[in-house]
Amino acid sequence: MGGSSSGFQTPFLETSNLQNFLLITTLSLLLLKSLQLFFRKRSLHKKFGEREENIENIEKAYKSIPEPRRFPLIGNWLMIFQINKRDHLKKAIELGIKYGPYFRITLFNEEIIILNSPESVKALLMSGNIEHAHRGTLMEKLWHKEMEGMIIYPGGEKWKARRKLLNRPFTYKSLQLHNPCFHKHSERMVKQLEKRFQVGSGGEQVIGVVDDILKQSTFGISSETLMGADLEKLEEGSMFCENLDVLIECAFMRVLRPWLLIPWIWRRSSFFKKTSNAIQAMGKVTFNIIKKYEEKAQLAPSEDSDLSDTMIQVMLQNGVDPQLVFSEILITLGVGNETTPVSAEHALFMLATHQEHQERCREEVDSIFDNPLMSKNGILEFDALKEMKYLERCIQESLRIHPVAMSMRRLEAPLRINEELVLPKGVSVLVAPFILHNQPKYFPNPEKYDPDRFLPDQIRERHPYAYVPFSAGMRSCIGMKLAMLELKVILATILRNFEVHTPDKIEDVGFMVTSTIKTINPIRFTLTRRHCSSNSG
Ligand code: HEM
Q: What keywords is this UniProt entry annotated with (predicted)?
């Protein structure tokens, strides 16, 4: 055997080609870095009118932001993506504790600063400057140009105007109009859960997963509240939720496989076909609903409480093109569909693993359901949900331990974090609540499930930006109030009707980062029907 000296060569690995390639790549990166530095200094100069020596200090502070060991070219890519899936959140929390209030990771040529102190989170989210509310290049590539101005679009004045318009359907006043549908969908959920957890012929308890049923329920409430129609009753409407999942799954595929962001590759991929089919099916349903609105608009729209203050009505009344109304509905429901059911499942898991808190919640829920002023014929009044204070604290604590979303920004202007540190224009900044919420400084014993952390006194003593599951400021979650109402009504209805247990343990449940932060496997539950004198129905 001639071994390596056989003279066999591949043209790609020919030494001189390889050397040239490495030389050109290194020179290009150096050039890019010097240009970045030049523009960074210029923008600091322009923005803050800083003197040369101050700029030097600011640069020094920026450079001294700690970072894990990075490799040439790929930066920290290996550390982020090659870690065992089971360690996703644990690893991130460890980094937070090791590196402190802010640290840097580098993915190829992109610097991402992770803000890990309430003060720096406040500086970003509450800056009030639209140039700090931009979502970043990845989002620009994911959502095509026609979507400019939509709520999900990275940023700009058009986004701001749309956001202002869409705030209305998400206010308590508007959501209250749709209270009957909250009850209707939770009743449907009870029936589905009963079916799944029917006690077997031998009287044995059934272990099952409930994430699909929770999803149908939160989707039912969100879609009816925002579109004004019970999709389950419409022809093809019942498939809407599944099609929405396809849409989000294919969009996330483009993040995992970045070559799918190149338009001509994307259009030839099977994911594009799946996306188009899903959009077509959902379009048919949505445009039929829009037609109904247009017909009713000629009669007396304001008297129909099913339709008033829904997203569709607000947009049509303000002259938004029906095609954009459709896209906006898809994106908003898609985001809600990814976050609320996962949060509901986790909150239920926390109550199943902490029976003492489950019991306290149930006592509160029973007393409200049994109060004729708060519940008529088993239907909760809208204000009754506000009275579920203990349940609310349990949900808040669950969202602290397992916040499902993060906030990503690309700075379009320098951002002052404190006296010493200014983040330059062009860098990406990330607020990761699962790192922030696990800091012993703000949440002593962070792994402990303790709903009393959300007692008014404790909240007052804590920095307000130490807890941001829905983000904060001009780009915070538009669906926060709706999500909290959904979580309360769903959990209250479950606790009213069932006793909840789980064979799973928190230390065995791993979390992974996908389009949201989910458990690796669905959690298993056992539900036992309660036989109280008056159940919810
Ligand atoms: C427990 C449930 C939920 C959680 C934890 C959650 C969390 C978040 C977070 C952290 C953001 C990012 C904000 C930022 O970039 O700073 C966000 C944005 C958003 N959420 Fe939620 N969300 C939830 C439920 C919902 C629901 C039910 C809807 C609507 C049906 C919704 C619609 C949106 C939209 C449209 C945005 C983008 C807002 C914008 O860019 O202006 N979310 N959410």
A: Heme, Iron, Metal-binding, Monooxygenase, Oxidoreductase
